[in-house]
Specification:
Length: 165
């Protein structure tokens, strides 16, 4: 199945805000009051926030990516120069072994527009699926921290090749 990566669309933002994951992945559920929905959609679609939609050929939103500050978790040390990348998949697309290929596609897409010597992802410590996907893309563990509320996160780094991706 062919996927496209493009700037976030209002339809995809609305879709991803409604995704509901089972525990322990419910950490990724968005909780938005109906009165704030339009504002939240506008946030995701604002180019300043660097969110991208992953869509099927027929326009179905199956994931999203983010770059820069939006991919960081408060409490982590992000002083090393790197492109921070985040990736989210629709609940029905998780656990199917697609994460590494999708992450690699996102990294390739972002590489040209975000020059940096390395890429970085921050992953919840319990999320072994995402960790394995990052490791298959050449990321290595580089740190660990506790965020507010005590959730543990792992930071992974991947040096960029001479080709830039």
């Amino acid at each position: 199945m062919m996927l496209t990566i493009q700037p976030m669309t209002p339809d995809c933002a609305r879709t991803l805000l409604a995704w509901r994951y089972p525990p322990p992945y419910d950490l990724y559920n968005h909780t938005v009051a109906a009165a704030d929905l339009d504002e939240e959609i506008a946030f995701f679609c604002d180019p300043e926030h660097h969110y991208y939609a992953l869509q099927t050929e027929d326009g179905h939103c199956v994931g999203f990516a983010c770059a820069g500050e939006e991919a960081r978790v408060p409490g982590g040390d992000y002083s090393l120069v790197a492109l921070d990348v985040g990736l989210g998949l629709a609940p029905e697309w998780t656990g199917r072994g697609l994460g590494a290929a999708l992450l690699q596609s996102v990294l390739h897409f972002l590489a040209g527009g975000y020059p940096a010597p390395r890429d970085r992802v921050t992953i919840a410590a319990f999320n072994r699926r995402a960790q394995r996907a990052a490791e298959r893309c050449g990321f290595a563990p580089a740190g660990r921290f506790s965020a507010a509320g005590g959730m543990e996160y792992l930071v992974y780094i991947r040096e960029r090749s001479e080709e830039g991706a």
